[in-house]
Amino acid sequence: MAIVSAAVAASEEEESMRVSMVRSYGNSDSAVERRYGLFMHIAVLVLALMTFANPAWAEATRPVKLVVLGDSLSAGLGLPAQEAFPTKLQKALQAKGIAVDMTNAGVSGDTSSGGRDRLDWSVPDGTDGVIVELGANDALRGIDPDLTRAALSEIVTRLKARKIAVMLCGMLAPPNYGADYAARFNSIYPDLAKKFDVPLYPFFLDGVAADAKLNQADGIHPTAAGVDIIVGNIMPTVEAFLGTIAEQRR
């Protein structure tokens, strides 16, 4: 009887608590919402305390802010915005659990000199890294490779002075300007990568250039499928680049 009485008492106490909770929360759905709200409040508070106590932790865990400084190849000329190189690269990185805040600073028709001239407003303060994809229009227009080299050199110099990491995407000259021009132009990117000690992806259009199935009707700008190939090919270089940035932020 004592056991039964205890069980009854416990049951009555449990029922009393349930009634009290119902009266407090109104109904079960409201209770869940209130509890969830309380949980989120506590989580935000804990996160804020961790950030205050250890700013380095907050810095290390925030998304990497990347800017793709480029021309129509990164701007996504002829493609919907979601098919442009920076957007697809961001999605590919996120699929691997790499958080990035990506900005598409591609301007169709831009040369290396154009990218240099708009550098300050295209790359805002707080940027962690810049992927430089410029030079295709220089080569198509037959611009003196010395001018291209000087513009790209200034871009890298100014970004490094701002403590912003740089990754270069190389470009190759078309054959119609001759072997001498091609040799002078094609050497720009590996030379600068070595001089400034920055990572280089040797040829941005590798696996896509001159393939009619992967280019739009103009034969120059990649299709969405072409962009997928570029992203797949460049990923290891970008991941290594982001790894370096992460190390520097710790």
From TrEMBL:
Q: Which residues form the signal peptide?
A: none
Residue ranges occupied by any SGNH hydrolase-type esterase domain in the UniProt entry: 68-227
Q: Which domain of life is it from?
A: Bacteria
Q: Which GO terms describe its molecular function?
A: phosphatidylcholine lysophospholipase activity
Q: Which residues cross the membrane?
A: 38-57
Q: What are the protein's UniProt keywords? A: Membrane, Transmembrane, Transmembrane helix
Any single GO BP term:
lipid metabolic process
Q: Does the keyword Iron-sulfur apply?
A: no
Q: Which InterPro entries match?
A: Ester_Hydrolysis_Enzymes, Lipase_GDSL_AS, SGNH_hydro, SGNH_hydro_sf
The family database entries (Pfam families) matched by this protein are listed as: Lipase_GDSL_2 (PF13472)
* Keyword Transmembrane belongs to the record: yes
Record's protein name = Arylesterase
